[in-house]
Every structure is written in structure tokens, then in C-alpha cells.
């Protein structure tokens, strides 16, 4: 009798537990579906006349002071185009594209998206961006580099308010003491670097890491010498590789350049372990803070008659295909405002950039003489994706691998690019 | 198994009751069967959602042209074995396979031998042994990014503290190009990974040692088994189950190591530290060819599975013994 009672009690208690388990089991697929699906939000269309009270913006300015400066500029532009609130999100640079991909698959792309210029064509190629011409925006009067970077299949997808590039930074005091003038030719660069290599101080520092940064830093010698990304096996490219190799073989640049990022190069320069370096204007706040007395000159040329060509850097504002016409139109207005003459000048002064509108260049040079070395370089700057478009990343991989093969003695400059997969 | 047997009081109830009771009993048995199934359901769902789905997705992705476009259009055309052909015929693949093997073997050998020696050392407790043992766990507490950044500075060729120390001590005449020479970089990466793996080996082996009853050593000592003899005759056989777990987990953890190599060399210089895991990461998250990245990670999963099977086999043999 007692056993029976206990059994029924146990059974009853089990029944309630089963019920709970069954209920949970039934719920599980539902919650899973909620996580997965995504649905087709945002495809509702909406007519162009509807009012837009807020815009979503995504960028990668996570560090101060850029974070606040961009935020203020976005808010001011929002007010001027009659959009009450700007819902801005900033994610770290390396994760931006992954974030965009997540948003694309869940159909939650922002209204305005900032992209690093070499990424624009790759993203535009997927159909995620709206041609700015649809909203009446053009890039008339802009420097050719930023326009080439933002153009795919003849359509403009982004407007870039400010540009930067890389050039030679030198320590004025050190060069003066050694009686060395900033180099204007490759020969001068080699002799100057050799002469400046004393004790723990190298003459020159650059970045040759196994990543896109390493490829970007090889472009000044490659392009200046007439090399081209569409023909990496050319003698012009081999000569540029030879220059990098000579600088390291001479002992004028550390063998560690294969492992130095641009920030490491800057640290070496600040620490007095390099008299000259190849770097960009975004390092200037750190240099000023460390009270380094420096000057900037464009990358030297190999032979007389060549012009110094450096790669274009900087970010553009784009309008993703969210499907809501009214919001997209407002988003284009925001992009236009971020690129107004006043905002180009302001952003350039704040962010160590050069305005991309050619008409602003002379005014900028007179107002910010310290950036003169970069202003001319940006006018000549060439977009990495200008010729190859979405195929640039593959070529960049070949370039940095080739550079590393040469610098570690695995291949001669003449056949390094072939060995790297060109 | 034994738990269910003891926890089934209903089945041992006396069978002398009247007919209705018997019917009730068979009904309750069916309910019990159902309850068993239902108890498994949440775990099964979790496994399907958290392990099954990603693995299946990874396998299907590896047969698709799954790139940037897929995220916007949702289209991922089936391409058969193309992704596998692409990644295997890549010039760097064979190098990555060899590097993966060397990296795993070197790391495991170093971690295990050092971890074992330290575990034996700490097993004979001495003043401050607890504090020292805790200090050895530090690498585990340090975020990997921080650890690899610190090691990058330590191993810097010109001004790194490692070279300065070695030169001062007269061990080397010229600075060792730890991270800048293709001949040394893999060794450098292995050394850092050994440093990182010691706490794991030390902790597990140490706890294994503590489970061996002291009486065994006392009895062994009476029979003349001390020192090395005691280690091989008593410690090693008793530690074998722990050893096989440590080695198997170690191999699987090491095969997929990513952060240390990315932080130290990014696979360079000149591809000297490329492994299958690095290749997979770069194809997926740098080049955004997710199909090819998935193909590589499937290759890695198969290699891990081989080791898991070896482990299970070895374990079964032990149980049979």
C-alpha cells in the first residue's frame, strides 16, 4: 500500500515536470526561429515625401578626439537637414566589415555607412550601396584619387571629405647635426639613411608586415618608379623591391621591419631609434605630444623626371540600400553635408587630413602650412582600387608576400612577385 | 547507467498486486520511457542548435561560393569541391600543413614535459609551494592579446629583453632574429605557446598526482621501488588516464591556435608561421571567401577527429584491461 502511494506521488510529481519539459521543448523551436529568420524588414518602400525623424549611422571613429568630432559634425548636419536625431554607432576598424555583413544578412543596414576607401568597390560590388547619382550628388571638383576609389562600373558610391597618404618624416635636429638634407631621390635616401645610422639609431624605418598595411607602405616606391599593380613582374616593381632590400641590407633599416606595424614604426621614430620614417599624418598628434621636432617630405623618386606617387588613404560616406526611399534621400543629404566646403576644411584640420576638393587646396595650404608636404602628395595620390577594383585584396596579398620574401632573403627582387603568386 | 538502475524503484515493486494495479504499472512504465526521452530532449536540442547546426552549416558552406555577396543577396551557388581544390592547391597549403604538425608536436612535447616536471616538483609540498604554483598559472589569466603583444616586445630583435639577456649572458654573439627570420619564427611561436600551455598541463597533471594513494608509494618503497623506479612503476601507470586526456585536449587546442600567431607574426615572415588555422582565418575574415575558409576548417576538424578517435580507442583499451 505505502509503496503504491509513493509511486503515485512520484508519478504525479514527474508528470508536472514532464509538462514543464514538454512546454520548454515546444518553445525552443520558436525562440530559435526568432533568432534566425530576420524577415524582410525595411523593404516596405515608403514614399520620398515622408518625414524622417532619425538616421542610423555606422563608422569606425572609436578613438578620441575623432569620435566626438565626427559625432558633433553628424549632429550639426542632422540639424541642418531637418533630421532630429542621429543614432550613431562606432565600431573598431578591423570589425567594421564584419559588422556590415551581419547587418546585411539581417536587413538592418544603417542609413549612412562610413567605409575605408579601398573597401568601397568591394561592398558596392555586392549591390549593398546606392549610387549617389540617384540623389543628384556628384564628385565634380574632387581630386581624382578619392573619385576613383569610390567609383564602380562608372557609378559613384561614396564621397570622401578628407584624404591622407604616407610620406617621409624626418627628425630636423638629427639631420641638421649630421649635415644631411631630406632625400629627394632613392640614392639620396640610401646615403642619408646610411649616414644617419649611428649606434642604436637606424637611418630609416618603414612597415613591411604580412598584411594590407605592409602592401600599402610598398606602394610609394612601386608607383613612383612606374610600377603597376596589374604587372607586378615588371622591372620597375623589382627595382622598388631592391630599394627596400638595400635599405635593410645596408643596415640602415632594422630587419624587424617585417614585423613592424605603422604604429611600431612611429614608436621607433619617437624613441629616437629611427631618424627618418615612412608614415602618415595620423601619427602627428603622438609626435607633437612627444615634442618631436620633425619635417615631412614626399617619398623620393628613383630617377629625375619621375613624380612621387603615394597611395590614397581616408574614409568615405556612403548610402546603403535600405529600401526606404525617404530615409535614403535624407541619408544622401547627410553625406552631402559631411562633404560641404566648411566641413571638409574643419575635418581636415581636426583629423590631420587634406580636403579632397581641389579648389580648397591652396586655401588649406596657407591656413595649415604644416600639412603642405601632404597637400601636394594627396593631389597626386592614387587609389589602391583604382585599377583592380574588388580584385585589389588578392593583389595586395601578393605584394606583401613578395616584399617579405625579398626582405627575408627567400627570393631575389626579380622573381619575388612571381614566387608570391603574381 | 548505474544511476538509472538504482533510481528505478517502480520496476522492483512486488508483482503480487491485483490486475488493475498491473495495468497501472504498465502505463507508468510507458510514462517512464517517455520521461527518459523527454529528459534527453533539452540536451539534444542544445547539441543540435549549438554544435550540429554550425558543423552542418560549415560543411555546406565549404561546397558553396560563399562570399561577401552572399550576405546581401542570400545567394551561395553550389560549387562542388572547388573550394577544397583551391585551398589544397594553394602554394602555401603544404607549408601550412607541415607548420601545423611542427607547431602542434613542438608545443605539446614542450608543454607536457615541462608541465609534468613542474607537477612532480610541486607534488612534494615545500614552504611557499602553493604561492609558486599559483604564480605558474599567470599565463592562463593573461588575455592572449596582451600576452602576445608582450612577447612581441620581448622577442624584438634589436631591443627586446630576451636578446639583451642572452647577449649579456654570452649565450649568443649576435641578436637572434626571433620573429623576423623565417628559420626561427616558427620556433619562437612554439616557445610562446609552450609558455601558455604549461599552466593547463601543470594543473591537470598535479591533480592527477594527488589522486594516487600514498599507500602505493609506501608499499613500493618497502619493495625497493623509489625515485625513477617509483615514477615508472607507480606514478606513470596510475596517471595514464589523466595523461591521455591532457594530450588529447592539448592537441585539439593547439591545432586551432590563432591569436598567438596573429599577435606575434600574422603568419609571416614570408609565410613561415602559416598554419591551417591561420589560413582558414585569413580566407574567412580577411579575404571574405567564407567557402574556402570553411573548407580549411573542415580539414582541421577531420584532423581533430582522428585524434579524438585515437583517444577513445586508447581509453577503451584501458577499460578492457
TrEMBL record, chain A:
GO terms for cellular component: ATP-binding cassette (ABC) transporter complex, substrate-binding subunit-containing. Belongs to the bacterial solute-binding protein 1 family. It comes from Microlunatus flavus. GO terms for molecular function: maltose binding. InterPro entries: SBP. Keywords: Signal, Sugar transport, Transport. This is Multiple sugar transport system substrate-binding protein. PROSITE patterns: PROKAR_LIPOPROTEIN.
From TrEMBL, chain B:
One of its GO terms (biological process) is transmembrane transport. Belongs to the binding-protein-dependent transport system permease family. Its main location: membrane. This is Multiple sugar transport system permease protein. The keyword Transmembrane applies. GO terms for cellular component: plasma membrane. Residues 97-311 form the ABC transmembrane type-1 domain. It comes from Microlunatus flavus. Residues 8-21 have a biased composition (Low complexity). The chain crosses the membrane at residues 34-56, 101-122, 134-154, 184-206, 242-264, 293-312. InterPro entries: MetI-like, MetI-like_sf. Residues 1-25 are annotated as: Disordered. Keywords: Cell membrane, Membrane, Sugar transport, Transmembrane, Transmembrane helix, Transport. It is found in: Cell membrane. It is a multi-pass membrane protein. Coiled coil: none annotated.
Amino acid at each position: 500500500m505505502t509503496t503504491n502511494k509513493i509511486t503515485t506521488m512520484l508519478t504525479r510529481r514527474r508528470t508536472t515536470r514532464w509538462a514543464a519539459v514538454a512546454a520548454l521543448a515546444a518553445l525552443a523551436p520558436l525562440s530559435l526561429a526568432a533568432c534566425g529568420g530576420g524577415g524582410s524588414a525595411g523593404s516596405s518602400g515608403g514614399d520620398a515625401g515622408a518625414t524622417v525623424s532619425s538616421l542610423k549611422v555606422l563608422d569606425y571613429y572609436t578613438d578620441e578626439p575623432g569620435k566626438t568630432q565626427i559625432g558633433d559634425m553628424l549632429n550639426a548636419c542632422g540639424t541642418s537637414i531637418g533630421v532630429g536625431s542621429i543614432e550613431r554607432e562606432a565600431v573598431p576598424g578591423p570589425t567594421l566589415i564584419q559588422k556590415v555583413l551581419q547587418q546585411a544578412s539581417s536587413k538592418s543596414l544603417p542609413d549612412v555607412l562610413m567605409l575605408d576607401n579601398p573597401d568601397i568597390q568591394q561592398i558596392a560590388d555586392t549591390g549593398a550601396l546606392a549610387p549617389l547619382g540617384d540623389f543628384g550628388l556628384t564628385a565634380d571638383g574632387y581630386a581624382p584619387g578619392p573619385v576613383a576609389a569610390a567609383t564602380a562600373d562608372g557609378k559613384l558610391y561614396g564621397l570622401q571629405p578628407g584624404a591622407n597618404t604616407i610620406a617621409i618624416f624626418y627628425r630636423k635636429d638629427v639631420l641638421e647635426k649630421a649635415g644631411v638634407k631630406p632625400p629627394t631621390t632613392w640614392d639620396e635616401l640610401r646615403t642619408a639613411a646610411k649616414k644617419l645610422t649611428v649606434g642604436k639609431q637606424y637611418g630609416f624605418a618603414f612597415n613591411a608586415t604580412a598584411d594590407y598595411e605592409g602592401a600599402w607602405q610598398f606602394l610609394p616606391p612601386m608607383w613612383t618608379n612606374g610600377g603597376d599593380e596589374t604587372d607586378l613582374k615588371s622591372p620597375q616593381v623589382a627595382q622598388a623591391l631592391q630599394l627596400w632590400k638595400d635599405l635593410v641590407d645596408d643596415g640602415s633599416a632594422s630587419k624587424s621591419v617585417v614585423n613592424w606595424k605603422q604604429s611600431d614604426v612611429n614608436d621607433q621614430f619617437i624613441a629616437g631609434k629611427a631618424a627618418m620614417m615612412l608614415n602618415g599624418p595620423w601619427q602627428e598628434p603622438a609626435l607633437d605630444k612627444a615634442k618631436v621636432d620633425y619635417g615631412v617630405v614626399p617619398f623620393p623618386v628613383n630617377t629625375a623626371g619621375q613624380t612621387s606617387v603615394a597611395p590614397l588613404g581616408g574614409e568615405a560616406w556612403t548610402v546603403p540600400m535600405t529600401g526606404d526611399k525617404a530615409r535614403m534621400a535624407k541619408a544622401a543629404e547627410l553625406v552631402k553635408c559631411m562633404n560641404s566646403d566648411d566641413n571638409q576644411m574643419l575635418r581636415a584640420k581636426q583629423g590631420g587630413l587634406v580636403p579632397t576638393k581641389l579648389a580648397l587646396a591652396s586655401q588649406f595650404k596657407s591656413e595649415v602650412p604644416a600639412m603642405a608636404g601632404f597637400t601636394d602628395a594627396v593631389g597626386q595620390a592614387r587609389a589602391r582600387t583604382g585599377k583592380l577594383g574588388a580584385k585589389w585584396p588578392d593583389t595586395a596579398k601578393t605584394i606583401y608576400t613578395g616584399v617579405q620574401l625579398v626582405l627575408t632573403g627567400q627570393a631575389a627582387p626579380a622573381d619575388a612577385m612571381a614566387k608570391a603568386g603574381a | 547507467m548505474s544511476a538509472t538502475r538504482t533510481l528505478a524503484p517502480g520496476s522492483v515493486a512486488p508483482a503480487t498486486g491485483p490486475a488493475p494495479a498491473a495495468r497501472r504499472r504498465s502505463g507508468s512504465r510507458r510514462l517512464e520511457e517517455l520521461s527518459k526521452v523527454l529528459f534527453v530532449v533539452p540536451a539534444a536540442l542544445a547539441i543540435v542548435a549549438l554544435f550540429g547546426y554550425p558543423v552542418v552549416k560549415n560543411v555546406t558552406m565549404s561546397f558553396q561560393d560563399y562570399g561577401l555577396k552572399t550576405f546581401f543577396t542570400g545567394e551561395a551557388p553550389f560549387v562542388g569541391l572547388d573550394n577544397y581544390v583551391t585551398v589544397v592547391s594553394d602554394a602555401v597549403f603544404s607549408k601550412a600543413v607541415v607548420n601545423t604538425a611542427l607547431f602542434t608536436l613542438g608545443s605539446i612535447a614542450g608543454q607536457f614535459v615541462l608541465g609534468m616536471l613542474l607537477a612532480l616538483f610541486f607534488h612534494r609540498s615545500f614552504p611557499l609551494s602553493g604561492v609558486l604554483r599559483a604564480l605558474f598559472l599567470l599565463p592562463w589569466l593573461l588575455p592572449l592579446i596582451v600576452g602576445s603583444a608582450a612577447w612581441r616586445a620581448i622577442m624584438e630583435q634589436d631591443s627586446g629583453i630576451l636578446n639583451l639577456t642572452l647577449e649579456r649572458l654570452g649565450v649568443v654573439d649576435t641578436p637572434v632574429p626571433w620573429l623576423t627570420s623565417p628559420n626561427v619564427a616558427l620556433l619562437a611561436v612554439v616557445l610562446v605557446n609552450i609558455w601558455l600551455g604549461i599552466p593547463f598541463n601543470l594543473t591537470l597533471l598535479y591533480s592527477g598526482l594527488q589522486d594516487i594513494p600514498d599507500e602505493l608509494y609506501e608499499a613500493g618503497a618497502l619493495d625497493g621501488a623509489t625515485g625513477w623506479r617509483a615514477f615508472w612503476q607507480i606514478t606513470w601507470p596510475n596517471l595514464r588516464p589523466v595523461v591521455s586526456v591532457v594530450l588529447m585536449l592539448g592537441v585539439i587546442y593547439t591545432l586551432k591556435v590563432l591569436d598567438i600567431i596573429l599577435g606575434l607574426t600574422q603568419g609571416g615572415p614570408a609565410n613561415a608561421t602559416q598554419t591551417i588555422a591561420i589560413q582558414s582565418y585569413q580566407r574567412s575574415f580577411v579575404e571574405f571567401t567564407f567557402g574556402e575558409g570553411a573548407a580549411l576548417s573542415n580539414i582541421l576538424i577531420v584532423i581533430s577527429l582522428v585524434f579524438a578517435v585515437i583517444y577513445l580507442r586508447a581509453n577503451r583499451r584501458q577499460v578492457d584491461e
